[in-house]
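It is worth pausing here to work through a concrete case rather than discussing structure prediction in the abstract. The textbook approach is simple: state the sequence, then state the predicted structure, then interpret. We follow exactly that order.
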Amino acid sequence: MENEKQISPLEKRVENYDSTQPNPRQQIKLIKYLMSSNLADFKVSKQELNEDNYNSYVTAFDTLFAKGDMNENKLVPLLLKIETPMTKLNGESEAAHDSIRNNIFLDYMDNDRAMQTVAILSRGEVSSFEKLNSFDLDVAYEKYPTAVDFHEELESELFGNLLYKHNDNTKDLYKVAVNEIAQAMYGKQNEYYNQFTILKESAIEKLSV
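Step two, the predicted structure:
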């Protein structure tokens, strides 16, 4: 129909958007590390992957969160140990790194919301998003080396300032774009950040009951 609203692929994803799904394996690893701050505990055995054990770890997280002992800053030392697609590995050629960075940029260069995200991080403002190049990804990554840094800056600048007057649907579209570019740049770092967010939001909801 001529007057039928056209829905973009990104908007279709938003229709069922609920951030990420809980990943019990990643959450147990994460909680064990956060409880001890010891990288040796950042693991999970098959025996630990059962409902009762998972629930006990989540309860431990909830208890520590309620005491103020769980926050994103505790994630940073762990995330700095996790290699990302943007990490320049020892012995990696510049050409290999350039190829990875260029591929990420090419994947998202037509996504205005993703590029606006990168513009905020690399250039400190959003209006130049159409003038970005792949090197802006390096600039953004060097300024914000973990997924925590990435999301905290955007929470303040993008969602706190630029979008505060927008409706929830627009904000959800940006959340999808932000998470997608974060996943492309930070890989597993972003996954663990998302799992922490899921745990935190669940703990907050339980405290409000």
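Step three, interpretation. Residues 33 and 41 are 5 Å apart (CA to CA). Confidence is low (pLDDT under 50) at residues 1-19.
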